[in-house]
Amino acid sequence: MAASRTRIRIDVAYDGTEFTGWAKQPGLRTCQGLLESALETVVREPAPVTVAGRTDAGVHALGQVAHFDAPEGIADIDRLPHRLNSLMRASDIAVLRASVAPEGFDARFSATSRRYRYRLQLDTRNPLAKDAAHWRRELALHAMQDTAELLTGLHDFAAFCKPREGATTIRELREFSWRFIQTDGPGRILEAHVLADAFCHSMVRSLVGACVAVGEGRLGLAAAESLLQERRRSSAIPLMPANGLTLMEVGYPDDADLAAQAERTKARRTPDDVEPRSRYHAEQPSQSTGDQQ
């Protein structure tokens, strides 16, 4: 008979600058690799970790969530973050919290949302702002916000994603907004907040890239919206640098709905689920489509 297990939720933060992404890769420094090595020492057996969002190389996180299944009766869970951080001996990754997960919890499939932040540093480069991508050209904030609003909704974001075999590119983009923020040091910071039920590979950096292209005047609003009709990665969308992106938060339902949410997530969406609308063309039919990159 298989030994009983206890599912443990862990909350993690990291500076992605020196990591080759989250996912473990032979011979490379990754967040998953460091964490699983430390966990194996603590629980004295391999401890595979499931994560809410597999971030790319250079991407940061303040609110990453993961889980692993530990032997029944694992002791001192409250001290687990301290033990793991001591074993990892790294200043750029930290386990913030650890707790026994509610029944039905799955860090990846039970999640109802992921929130990301993207920062662009304009004008003078601040060498301490490692969580902001430097951008030399002037950007029109109002045009970037208009683009963000056009892209919000339930759509097939194939034009904004690197394809993965067998994976859907239909996502519900719930919030997308831009603003200038005040920070210490030289230069202005332009910040985007992006919330969706989930994101496909490179989607956030491409959404930001589309806004930047419109903000620079290289892409028109109607052309940006028409990208939602494309069914493969578009060359009109620049992929923005990874260092401006930070995973801020992963949302989950009430404990009673965790298992059901996991099953809903695993049910693949179809094109029939996509919103059949074109807000920009409906509201401003005479506007120029602009030049594509």
TrEMBL record:
Catalytic residues identified in the record: 56 (nucleophile)
Record: residues binding substrate: 116
Biased composition (Basic and acidic residues): 263-282
Positions of the Pseudouridine synthase I TruA alpha/beta domain: 13-109, 148-253
Cited InterPro entries: PsdUridine_synth_cat_dom_sf (IPR020103), PsdUridine_synth_TruA (IPR001406), PsdUridine_synth_TruA_a/b_dom (IPR020097), PsdUridine_synth_TruA_C (IPR020095), TruA/RsuA/RluB/E/F_N (IPR020094)
Region span, Disordered: 256-293
Start-end of Polar residues biased regions: 284-293
Domain of life: Bacteria
Keywords in alphabetical order: Isomerase, tRNA processing
Catalysed reactions, as listed in the record: uridine(38/39/40) in tRNA = pseudouridine(38/39/40) in tRNA
Record GO biological process: tRNA pseudouridine synthesis
Record-level Gene Ontology MF annotations: RNA binding; tRNA pseudouridine(38-40) synthase activity
Class of this enzyme: isomerase
Coiled coil stretches, renumbered: none
Matching Pfam families: PseudoU_synth_1 (PF01416)
EC number(s) stated in the UniProt entry for this protein: 5.4.99.12
Function (record text): Formation of pseudouridine at positions 38, 39 and 40 in the anticodon stem and loop of transfer RNAs.
Record's subunit section: Homodimer.
Family: Belongs to the tRNA pseudouridine synthase TruA family.
HAMAP family: TruA
Protein name: tRNA pseudouridine synthase A
Protein source organism: Candidatus Agrococcus pullicola
